[in-house]
Amino acid sequence: MGTLFFPGLFSGKGKMFLTAFLALMILALAATFLGASEVLENIKQVSLGSLALASLVYCASWRLEEFVSSRSLKD
Length: 75
Prior knowledge:
Blueprint: H1 2-5, H2 12-34, H3 36-45, H4 48-74
Helix pairs in contact: 2-3
């Protein structure tokens, strides 16, 4: 996302930080519109391991998408 407007500004760890920040912002917006208590109740029901695994898969998907995009642009 940031690379479209600021080429080279967001590299490896910067992209992961940006992704995590955006995810937290989306969660905050959902809490605002849906009600914080409902969002917190749903988060409490999720196991910490599942949440960590989902976060890792989400972050890895960005790296995988970058790899696939670079490969398709070379061909």
